Amino acid sequence: MSDLHVVGKSYPQIDAREKVTGTTEFVSDLVLPNMLFGRTLRSPYAHARIVHLDTSRASKMPGVKAVVTYSDTPGIKFGPRSNDWTIMACEKVLFEGDEVAAVAAVDEDTAEEALDLIRVEYEEIPAVFDPMDAMQPEAPLVHDDKPGNIAFEYKVDVGDVDEALKNSYFVYEDSFYTNQVYQAYLEPMGAVAAVDLCGRLTLWTGTQIPNMMRMTYARALGLPPEQIRVVVPDYGGAFGAKMENNVHLVAAVLAQKARRPVKLMNTRRDDFLAGNPRVPMYVDIKLGVTADGILTGKDVRVVGGNGARTIYAHAIVATACYRVDSLYRFRHVRAMGHTVYTNTVPTSCFRGFGNAQMTFVLESAMDAIAEHLSIDPAELRLKNGIGSGEVSIHGWRIGASGLAECVERATKAADWAGKRSRREPMRGIGLACCNHVAGNRGFVQEFDGGAGMVRIGRDGRITVYHGESDMGQGQKTTFAQIVAERLGVPLELIVVAQVDTDVSPFGLGSFATRGTIMGGNGVLAAAANAFRQLAEVAGEMLEAAPEDIVSENGMFFVMGAPDQGIPFMDVIEAATRKQGGAPLVATGHYIPPTELPNPVTKYGNVAPAYPFACQIAEVEVDPDTGHVTVVNFVAAHDVGRAINPMATEGQIQGGVAQGLGWTLMENMVVNEGRVANASFLDYEIPGPLDVPDVVPILVEPVEPEGPYGAKGIGEPALNPSMAAITNAIYNATGVRINRLPVNHQMLVREIKKRDHS
Amino acid sequence: MKVPLSFVLNGEEHFLMIRPNRTLLDVIRVDLGLTGTKLGCGQGKCGACTVLLNGEPVNACLILAPQVNGKEVLTVEGLGGDALHPLQKAFVEKGAVQCGYCTPGMLMTAKGFLNKHPHPTKEDIRAAIAGNLCRCTGYKNIAEAIHSAAYESGNSPADSERDDV
Lengths: 757, 165
Hints:
Strand order of the largest sheet of chain B: 2-1-5-3-4
Structural class of chain B: alpha+beta
Oligomer: heterodimer
Largest interface: A-B, 57 and 55 residues
Number of domains of chain B: 2
Helix content of chain A: 25-40%
CATH superfamily of the largest domain in chain B: Beta-grasp domain
Helix content of chain B: 25-40%
Structural class of chain A: alpha+beta
Largest sheet of chain B: 5 strands, mixed
Strand content of chain A: 15-25%
CATH superfamily of the largest domain in chain A: Aldehyde oxidase/xanthine dehydrogenase, molybdopterin binding domain
Distance between the termini of chain A: 60 Å
CATH topology of the largest domain in chain B: Ubiquitin-like (UB roll)
Number of helices of chain B: 6
Strand order of the largest sheet of chain A: 3-5-1-12-9-10-11-20
CATH topology of the largest domain in chain A: Aldehyde Oxidoreductase, domain 4
CATH class of the largest domain in chain B: Alpha Beta
Radius of gyration of chain B: 15 Å
């Protein structure tokens, strides 16, 4: 496919100009006529009965147009997957940050002041904060109808794990903990909500899943889905968090009651307390190998903290239980996952979706096994890594696998062999690999696929419609490149429409690293359809068969006769004239060859393609302070074909920075149910001085299922980063990191112990 | 109670009556409707609200509006003219923009920095933007864009535009 003109080339984001001039309208920038500003009153307690709630003084305050509590909502129990949500707290608050009341007023100051006038009397009740504690028989219940605080259980058992481990040369066994971290996108969550005279609700919000959110919210509000319109303006990052959240529904209820548009944006503190942070996990692992390093069996137990309501934590724990099994050639695996309610903020998706947590565990274990067997860690991965055309233990059909090439190119670029042999005190180098999915059939049960629509007006404007979501990763540009390539026109002619559920095709959304492969294939199919229509008209004009028409750089011509071409503008002029001015409209879709996993065996090909990666970190450790500096970082990623290499590399650099933050800096500190560091002052994310220049390497096997051979990059960019860094710390100090984030005092203590022994 | 406020924003004089506890950020975004400057944390940590106050980068969320009486403020809307400023151009071309929410603040910090340090090293640049957080890019392309704007543009930003704020 060396004859590609637009795909495979680096372009700035097609809307970068708006972004650098400050003219992009983000959700928080939207202003509607007559719009009010909302604020939310949140529970200061982790678990309490609401004894008395009085909003009368706030309601009477000048400038306040609506005050709402649970009693203003339809009172329906709902949720994306489990009906354990209400819009605002009913009788009880279940976590610090739970929505108790909200105000809409003429300006933000008034709304803020009105919150102080709401009187709430609470009666604290016993609470539970840690998922391990919550599983104890005498633990207080978060929901009375959920015995044992169990939200979900997941089990997978393939082969004979006990026998496999028994017959192993060596079984590595240890326990790990991955902590709760916050996505920390720069624009907090929020929405503008407006209700028309017929009661139809429009939500302008930054969401990764406009269509699924609409269905969940329709149930919550007791409205048919067609009575809700979701529009997705540009928004400032998401990384998994921006899916269902009560903030949008509170905005809707305020707008319903005030009968005026309402903008409700989380403050940063709101967002820390009630965003959708990462699922914390306890993991026990047993991993067996033969004497020459062939993996025999794997046995894990996962306990994940669900928080007080179910978003997607159960699916995240399930993912942790089994996705890594398709990274290597496993034959015997078993996992038991428990997703457990606690009186803490509901947890959900964050780049990696459980695979990030388990990749940290598995790749730490692999590092330890390599040492035990005196095998090079890279060699151990190559011995076991899954290859192109193989079928994994769970029936995942690996199309193209660039795993081995990732390992080979990363080790070469990082001077792995040289640096492993030249030992310097307190300096180390570590490696970790990962697999992932590009799309996930198991996540949404109804169907899988992607769709697109291309509209070409008489003015030649080519507008691409899709139902996924650009949260800043550059999806619009990717889609525009795919459509420009297929139509044979310059990229500049393509516009990508805002997702609007009134107009856009239904799309499941941007998660599971599915945007490029599902949405990309959807818009590619639509573009192919549009091209067929254009070729028919061009064929008439050139007196040739439509099948013989090709286009390049905006010119349509008969194959082999590029000199006698006609410009795209002439073709679309003729096409629209012929149909009375009607625009050329083409839809297209992609149905991937995926299968819903068997509910018992979990066997089934869940994704059309599987990305892989190998990352290598080099660290320096200060033995006196425990401070770890990541000095070099190489990240080799099998992304299929990179539609836009600069954007792909940008994803890798950003993903590694987040992984670095998680490993070395970030932790939501919860003391007796209260988040102790709910601000950027106290919860530090990596700044420009914390992140090295990450060296991205693109490994590009052409993926048969991908649009122009692409897979995806979003989540794998982060998956191996934690273990790459902690394995480097082990290489530098001999200290194995079993808990994230790295604890400086522990590291100093352990280094001292080793010095004295 | 409201107090008078008189200041120059992007070269244009403004007179308005404001409550004295109003932040510069609210005046710019809400009262004057220039939404290019962003609110990220409200605590002066993330730098998304960075503007130039008499040429110095400041967090507009921490400045009370009365403090800017008689002063000059430059926001991202005033950075380029008909053409993009070299920094804006470099941010576009180097892929320094992902979601774009931190971008206006980054640009203004970089502008204030290059005015004073026209020939920075890459380390200088990282230190200069240390008060601006970006969650998308990992900073590499941002630092490269600033470096490129300093060295690759025909006219040095420091020479040609020192006087515009």
